[in-house]
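Translate structure to sequence.
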């Protein structure tokens, strides 16, 4: 594909259109990958929509825990829709070009929704902390008004930071190449294309990651340390099992999301490789959202019971 560029004021050629290389190194598998990602997208849409439907229709699930779970499922649908439709378009049409504005828009939505997921997972762990460690105060602390405020904070809290970070990254000149060796516009491969020294921008990325990912993760660990202490002090094995079952699915999602995302963004740029970055990104942008409905459904007896009631009605 032809490189499009304009002449900047300082006589440096600046890219105005990018090419997402994606999986172009696997030409014989384009059809297979298109079919595979189409199936994954349908599973994500159906699975997460089903969770939202169940939590809205079943009165037994009108609780703060399932209110946040419904928000999380809506978020996963949005999160996957930022990247997967673009991947499918490239695989089917072989048109991998994306404008500078389109790339910036995709990155901005990706970062904002990723931050929302980080905050929402922290909110969900706080909900479990109050439910298990302070059960008598739970109805008062997690009132409907408080739940809506926490959800709104999770959705909107990271927006100013990530919009600012996107503007900062795309204020750079890109003169090395217009080929992004990734399947979507992400920070590490974009910074590789920038002219000059990018160490200041890399440092700002680390600072933002600490604010929007490391801090929520520490809060989650603190919540679960309190939760585990309370569970171990419960008098009956049945009580311990029930309390742990309500937390284990959430804890598994936390490990999957924060583990893969932190490896991607906290590694030095020099240690990044295209293959590893694509694999890690596939994991936390596509694979994890696909399995989240399964994780939350199969490990939660209330959701399973609600699903059975819904199936019996239909």
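Result:
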């Amino acid at each position: 594909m032809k490189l499009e560029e304009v002449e900047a004021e300082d006589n440096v050629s600046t890219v105005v259109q990018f090419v997402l290389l994606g999986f172009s190194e696997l030409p014989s598998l384009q059809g297979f990958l298109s079919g595979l990602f189409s199936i994954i997208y349908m599973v994500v849409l159906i699975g997460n929509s089903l969770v939202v439907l169940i939590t809205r229709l079943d009165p037994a699930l009108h609780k703060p825990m399932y209110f946040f779970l419904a928000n999380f499922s809506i978020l996963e649908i949005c999160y996957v829709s930022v990247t997967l439709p673009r991947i499918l378009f490239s695989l089917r049409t072989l048109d991998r070009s994306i404008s500078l504005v389109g790339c910036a828009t995709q990155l901005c939505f990706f970062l904002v929704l990723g931050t929302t997921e980080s905050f929402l997972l922290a909110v969900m762990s706080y909900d479990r902390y109050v439910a298990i460690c302070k059960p008598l105060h739970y109805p008062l602390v997690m009132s409907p008004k408080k739940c809506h405020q926490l959800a709104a904070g999770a959705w909107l809290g990271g927006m100013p930071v990530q919009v600012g970070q996107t503007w900062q990254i795309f204020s750079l000149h890109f003169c090395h190449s217009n080929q992004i060796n990734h399947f979507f516009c992400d920070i590490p491969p974009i910074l590789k294309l920038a002219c000059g020294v990018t160490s200041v921008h890399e440092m700002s990325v680390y600072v933002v990651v600490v604010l929007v990912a490391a801090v929520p993760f520490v809060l989650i660990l603190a919540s679960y340390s309190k939760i585990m202490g309370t569970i171990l002090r419960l008098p009956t094995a049945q009580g311990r099992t029930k309390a742990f079952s309500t937390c284990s699915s959430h804890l598994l999602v936390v490990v999957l999301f924060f583990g893969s995302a932190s490896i991607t963004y906290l590694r030095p740029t020099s240690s990044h490789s295209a293959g590893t970055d694509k694999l890690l990104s596939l994991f936390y942008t596509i694979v994890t959202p696909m399995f989240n409905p399964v994780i939350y459904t199969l490990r939660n007896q209330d959701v399973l019971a609600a699903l059975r009631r819904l199936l019996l009605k239909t």
